[in-house]
């Protein structure tokens, strides 16, 4: 029993570290802390009501996720993807999600495929009446297919890419007008998965992401976005 106070103190420290990490991560992903912003430890410690120790641990974990860049002698700042990095992200997605779709055609349970198709058809009905954003339904579809792959490494890699994409506000703007076409492409992919056509599932997923990348590149040129940050 003599170790109980020490164990409780350790649990409290772990809980504080976890809550600090979760709060800082949410602030970054939700845009309350902008891409490219410097993470001032003193200000954040005061805002979160914590010492610098759990804050530094949170920053370290976020750097491992790729959401934060730690610069020698300059502190840490939130990732700010430039045009070239965004294009590279979509190139990586094409490779990872293409294989994920192939595996989903072999492994994704039929009821999950049917549920995803039902949700996308509902989304198309919404799009005919609404001007709502692109990210959430797209993320739901891609995440469902990657889960259906049954490959944990593919799921982990995809998650890291999706989180980084959420920091790039230009992505939503670039794909706003493509939402209806993209959703129809999603339905094509799911139809291939439903009939267990692995080759078609991979081909259609790759084509879908390639079209998204090409659309993004056109948008970046129109906006005059620099290729390097």
Describe this structure in words.
With 229 residues, the chain is mainly alpha-helical. It is built from ten helices and three strands. The protein has helices at residues 4-29, 41-48, 52-65, 83-107, 110-127, 135-148, 152-166, 169-175, 179-194, 198-223, and strands at residues 38-39, 68-71, 75-78. The protein has a three-stranded antiparallel β-sheet with strand order 1-3-2. Strand 2 (68-71) and strand 3 (75-78) form a beta hairpin. Helix 4 runs antiparallel to helix 7 (152-166), helix 5 (110-127) runs antiparallel to helix 9 (179-194) and helix 6 runs antiparallel to helix 7 (152-166). The model is unreliable at 131-135 (pLDDT under 50).
What is the compact description of this entry?
The protein is built from 10 helices and 3 strands, in the order αβααββααααααα. It starts with a helix and ends in a 6-residue tail after the last helix.
List its salient traits.
10 helices, 3 strands, single chain, mainly alpha, three-stranded antiparallel beta sheet
| Helix amount | over 70%
State the order of secondary-structure elements, H for helix, E for strand.
HEHHEEHHHHHHH
Q: How many strands, which pairing sense, and closed or not: the largest β-sheet?
A: 3 strands, antiparallel
Determine the strand fraction and express it as a percent band. under 5%
What is the radius of gyration?
A: 20 Å
- Segments where pLDDT lies below 50 for 5+ residues? 131-135
Principal-axis shape: globular
Number of H/I helices: 10
**Euclidean distance between termini CA atoms:** 56 Å
Summarize model confidence as the mean pLDDT.
85
What is the spatial order of strands in the main beta sheet?
A: 1-3-2
Kindly state the number of beta strands. Answer: 3
Class inferred from helices and paired strands? mainly alpha
